[in-house]
Design goal:
alpha/beta, Rossmann fold, 7-stranded mixed sheet, binds 5-O-phosphono-beta-D-ribofuranosylamine
């Protein structure tokens, strides 16, 4: 399964996906990494690992114009699944239609709690005892599509945004690859808001 990974920054989720592939835990290949910001740290990781990467700057373009560029680039690389990994832009309905049920996102909270920016800080400020991360299908709304997998992370009394974010990030890295592998194995059925996970095929 050919992946297109969209990033805006550090790129640790992208790197974790690349690691899962190289360790043989994920049956996929990264066809292209696209950053909307020239300074995205993930671009350095892609270069070091010899993974094709490209900057398509989003500055000054409206959503439809920008998403058209993204769609063309992803199609040119025969991308079958688009993975948003710290990609800080909302995608248009046309983008979502171009890859039906084939766009995933990772968010650092247990959705529907704490969508948007700084999910970890929102959780800490609210005083929840359990935080976590969510991998979900993407629709044109913010952090809102059907949920594939979630992982829970306890909030400790002395947690800071940094310490909690680090523990959530470790779960993000594992959870994202697991969700992608479920799609590679064709084991997800979307029924409205619900995503059913089919059992492993023993003969596969
Ligand atoms: C992660 O916390 C992800 O959940 C959120 O943005 C952050 C991206 O981190 N959407 P990285 O660029 O993958 O290191």
């Amino acid at each position: 399964m050919r992946l297109g990974i969209l990033i805006s920054g550090r790129g640790s989720n992208f790197e974790a996906i690349a690691n899962s592939i190289s360790r043989g835990k994920l049956d996929a290949e990264i066809a292209i990494v696209i950053a909307n910001k020239p300074g995205a740290g993930g671009l350095v990781i892609a270069r070091e690992r010899g993974i094709p990467a490209k900057v398509i700057p989003s500055r000054g373009l409206d959503r439809e114009q920008y998403d058209k560029l993204l769609i063309d680039e992803l199609r040119a690389h025969d991308v079958e699944l688009v993975c948003l990994a710290g990609f800080m832009r909302l995608l248009s309905a046309n983008f979502v239609k171009a890859f039906p049920d084939r766009v995933l996102n990772i968010h650092p909270s247990l959705l529907p709690a704490f969508p948007g920016l700084d999910g970890q800080k929102q959780a800490l400020d609210y005083g929840v005892k359990i935080a976590g991360c969510t991998v979900h299908f993407v629709d044109e709304f913010l952090d809102s599509g059907p949920i594939v997998l979630q992982a829970a992370v306890p909030v400790l009394d002395d947690d800071t945004v940094e310490s909690l974010s680090a523990r959530i990030l470790a779960q993000e890295h594992a959870t994202y690859s697991s969700a992608i592998q479920l799609i590679a194995e064709n084991r997800l059925v979307i029924e409205g808001r619900k995503v059913r996970i089919l059992p492993e095929n023993p003969s596969a």
